Amino acid sequence: MNVGVRQSARLAGLLLLFFRRRVLRVGLLRSRTVRTAAAALALVFFGVLCAAAYQFLEPLALTRELWDLMFEIGTVSLVIWAMGAFLVVKVLFINAADMLELSYQLPVTNRERALAFLMYEAAITAIVVALGFSALAVTSVALLGLEALPHLLTAFVIPAAIVYLGLSVLHHLLVRVWTFLRLGNIAGLLSVIALFMLLVLYSTTMNDTVFAITDDYFEGGGAFQWQSAVSWFWGHSPVLTGAGSLAAIAVLIGVNLVLTPNQYVRQSKFLAVFTGRHARHVLHPYDYCLFRNSQTAVAAVIAVALFAYLLLGGGETNPMWSLAALSTAGLYHYSGTEPLRRLPVSTRSAPAVYARLVKGQAMLLAAFAVPEFLIGAIVDPARMGDSALALLGAASGMVLAVWVSVVFPSEKNNPFSVLLGIACAAVIFGLIVIGLGMLRLPAPVTQLILAVCGLAVIAHSIIEIHDNEMRRRHSEDDQNRPGLAGEFPGDHRDGDRGGPDAAHVLDQR
């Protein structure tokens, strides 16, 4: 196996350049003022999290044993964070074949391309995981000084890398199994679903693990837990643990490269979902693009699994909250329906386009909400009392998903645009929720503010659709105008513009 790390690093740099030029300056981020404001909001959000963590952890600064307990429990939570981040990245990258076409003309092998994407996916996963633990890390360094660095390394950094690479190896093995069963065109979809089931299984053991760690701490013991194995070995031999961790990471990277197929297997973007003959009278082509999308299939399976877990788990959460997972189906809905808007018979009215996008989301929500409510009312009717609030939350998530798909359009199914949109939405609405929580306004006032925010999101989505369609229309008109394709002011004299020679040059192209 001959893999050029340098070529992979260069390809990763090319993807980073593409990210900077085609993601950070597209949609809402076209304006430098908006980019600056978004960066400022992100810094404010991070500062608020750090201040809250500092205020909570400052009383524990003098009790180092409690810090060890906190880091060990944090590692247990880190595993599920890393698994969730890995699945989010894989779901968004299922249809990234169009993005890979950027590198098909470059002198790189598929394994080198896979290594470049492994670097990129690892970086994205690290960023997602860091969102949940960066405030804790900064606070730990502020309170403990340099003594916190070994704890952060063994409790967060090394376990996150090992979990990510281990999940990547398992994902490759699952893809090979599905390919052997002649299901290669949906291997990515099936692998994501299987790994999500693994995440649900691990989540059922988290409480018992935390209780075991806490009981062991109060009893003065040092029981071994596989989640905190790195910290446990570090306490016995730091040098050997560091060397062993580096060796394990290197081996996992090598196994990932060995298991990478020699040729990229394109995944099916749309599935042959049966909708019936009579559905044509109800469903619009926009709806078919949503219902038959592979992303929708993943969202549907996750929603059903969450519903079963919440309903049978015996907790207090209304199982209808599982419908919030359906909102991820709309992240590519606007960009996926662009070919329909290019048709001459298609309407270009921004409100009509937005209505069609939301209609499909509403039908998807209703298709799952009705049977879930009936099943929940039969199995455990006492927990279905606040189902209206759960439905409202799921509907709000769908409105936000449509906003992300419109404001951060994904060119060539670009998953980086979607990730950036999710991050911006999380920062903006996270600050709104934190601000409302600090103000402690009356419930009617809070509800009114949230309703106004929802209307603002809808209005902004319609405005962005109008702007996007106007730019695309002008671009199409310029390309179809004889003699003006690809021209810029000053290319030639006005007398030559649109003459007979221009048509001849256009034919030669």
What is the distance, rounded to the nearest whole angstrom, between the alpha carbons of the first and last residues? 42 Å
Find the structural class using helix and strand composition: mainly alpha
Radius of gyration: 26 Å
Low-pLDDT sequence parts: 484-509
The count of helical stretches stands at: 18
Mean pLDDT: 79
Largest sheet: none
Give the fraction of residues assigned to helices: over 70%
H and E order: HHHHHHHHHHHHHHHHHH
Shape call: globular
In percent terms, what proportion of residues is strand? under 5%
Number of strands: 0
Descriptive account of the structure:
The chain is mainly alpha-helical. The chain is built from 18 helices and no strands. It has helices at 5-22, 32-57, 64-93, 97-100, 110-144, 148-180, 187-218, 229-236, 238-259, 285-291, 294-312, 333-336, 338-341, 350-379, 387-407, 415-439, 443-480, 500-508. Residues 484-509 have low confidence and may be disordered.
Provide a quick synopsis of the model.
By secondary structure, this protein is mainly α. It is built from 18 helices and no strands. The protein has helices at 5-22, 32-57, 64-93, 97-100, 110-144, 148-180, 187-218, 229-236, 238-259, 285-291, 294-312, 333-336, 338-341, 350-379, 387-407, 415-439, 443-480, 500-508.
Helices and strands, with pairings:
Layout: H1 5-22, H2 32-57, H3 64-93, H4 97-100, H5 110-144, H6 148-180, H7 187-218, H8 229-236, H9 238-259, H10 285-291, H11 294-312, H12 333-336, H13 338-341, H14 350-379, H15 387-407, H16 415-439, H17 443-480, H18 500-508
Helix pairs in contact: 1-5, 2-5, 2-16, 3-5, 3-6, 3-7, 5-6, 6-7, 6-9, 7-11, 8-9, 10-14, 11-14, 14-15, 14-17, 15-16, 15-17
